[in-house]
Amino acid sequence: MKTIFSVLLGLFLSLSAVAQSWLIGPFKKHNAANPVLTALATSTFDCPVRGETVNWEEKDVFNPAAVVRNGKIYLIYRAEDKVGKYNGTSRIGIATSADGLHFKRMPKPVFYPENDFMKKYEWEGGAEDPRVVETADGQYVMTYTSYDGEKARLCVATSSDLLSWKKYGLAFGNYIKGGGEDFWSKSGSVVCRRVGDKLIATQINGKYWMYWGDKQQLFVAVSDDLIHWYPFTMPDKNLKAVAEFRPGHFDYRVLEPGPPALITPEGIVLIYNGMNDGKNGDPNLPDGTYAAGQFLFNLDEPDRLQDRSESYFMKPDQPYELVGQVNNVTFVESMVPYKGRWWLFYGTADSKIAVASAPLK
User: What are phi and psi of 332, to 5 degrees?
Assistant: First the structure.
């Protein structure tokens, strides 16, 4: 005979499942195929800054963006060499797939530090963490992180074919904070809507919106053109947080946006990465673990958080996720609709790239 406690617990769990029916998923890792992309020591590139040939993806590949183009998945990924004082400059390469599991990579990077106006921001750490969205007229907009070895800065570039890119510089270059200092900024996730197999950047209330940040708070910014961005601030000019860390949870130390945020009937769903804290976070996860959760923001007020997943839906549990350049990392960064499924690509231990998928709703 069921006890009153068991009946109430079942009712609570049932109501909780209904209350969070907005969650995308469930996702299943493709363990038989993973990792789908690994470092390759034979790829060479004539670096215009270094003035020599480097093995541009021999150290690690991770931080993947993705789009569907011409019937294929294009994976736009970060790759590191083993050269220089930081033991690795990051460049961005491309690999394509017809099934989401098997990829053919292009031999040269498509985006990298050059002797241009961005060199002072990109050298010699490189260009990192790409996220790519499409515009209604078929252009691609990439947010990425420039790293000079001391500071990370969120930047923007555009392309018509994913191969040739135009750099526009700092995303927050026009924003004045504390007398004009440029500040640490990363991980720009632009709000999109799904149109077939494309994710199209979409205005809300006459503005484009972007979630960003990699601290204990999450921030938001708006733009008229997807190039120049203006963070929401408080009256004292400090950044306005739209989500914060949770004691006792996997996201105590870091909240960092993942794939482009998605407009759904329930609101804006943002898949994000949380970093655990061994003392104050989730006691069931090792210190420093990166796991993935989901936020739900209000569609009419994208800076208003409506709900968040109770816990993570993905965590490191495979050997290549547990051990690598940075141990205990599953870092989700791109999600595309393709052949009836959502394909979620993520970096593993900052060393390799893997994939999970879920049925399209």
Answer: -80, 140
Q: 250 — phi, psi (to 5°)?
A: -70, -15
Report H helices in 302-353.
319-322
Question: How many residues would you count in the chain?
Answer: 361
pLDDT of residue 8: 41
Backbone angles phi, psi at 253, to 5 degrees: -90, -35
DSSP 3-45: -HHHHHHHHHHHHHHHHTTT-----EE-TTT--SB---TT--E
Burial of 313-349, coded b for 16+ CB within 10 Å and e otherwise, reads: bbbbebebbbebbbbbbbbbbbbbbbeebbbbbbbbb
pLDDT, residue 4, reads 53
55 token code pair:
């093995």
Maximum Cα interatomic distance, the chain, rounded to a whole number of Å = 77
Express the helix, strand and coil content of the chain in percent, nearest 5 each. Answer: 5, 45, 50
Q: How confident is the model at residue 176 (pLDDT cuts 50, 70, 90)?
A: low
Out of 15-29, 147-161, 197-211, 212-226, pick the least confident: 15-29
**Whole-model pTM?**
0.93
Give the C-alpha separation, 7 to 5, whole Å.
5
209 alpha-carbon distance from chain centroid: 15
d(C-alpha 205, C-alpha 300), whole Å: 7
H helix or E strand, kind and range, residue 260: none
Burial class (CB in 10 A: 0-12, 13-18, 19+), 26: exposed
User: Which token pair is 112?
Assistant: 């990298």
Element (DSSP H or E) covering residue 218: strand 217-223
Distance CA 118, CA 62 (A): 22
Count of C-beta atoms within a 10 Å radius of residue 217: 15
Report the DSSP beta bridge partners of residue 280. Answer: none
What are φ and ψ of residue 8, in 5° steps?
Answer: -65, -40
Sorted by where each starts, the structural domains of the chain and their CATH numbers stand as: 25-359 (2.115.10.20)
CA distance 246 to 90: 32
| Tokens found for residue 10 | 């079942």
